[in-house]
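SAMPLE LOG
Freezer: B-3
Tube label: C17
Construct: single chain, 149 aa
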Amino acid sequence: MDLPEHLTASENELIYDINVSENDALRIYYNEKANCIITRSIGFVYDAELRTFLNQIIFFLKEKNTNKLIVDLTYRQTYTDEDQKWIDTDWFPRALQAGLSFFGYVIPSDLFMQLSADEILVKQKGSVNVIPFGNLNKAVEWIQIQEKV
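STRUCTURE (predicted):
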């Protein structure tokens, strides 16, 4: 599998890019027009590399002074049970504390990843506006009209 192309440079500034292997990568973009962070996790990345990536998301939410995040899970493989628990109990509370209010995500193509994402995100409803999308363009359209709280 080749890594997917980067998001359009004129709209999205690449602010974090790690190729973990020839098939696995972690990318973070900033879309100035929508004032949001967009992430793309590709393949199966877990443990310390995944946690560093997720912590960078919080860093960039603060640095860019935004409360909007889109997570593109199109190319993501499932989380480990340990990573899923860490996201629930550690990462999400810190992301909310950093101001995360609007969370769009692109539904993954992998069925097991869909179930993993649903399990994590259903617990967050009520604490953040979580909306699933079939593609990234629809997620950006939605998040662009959300106002900073």
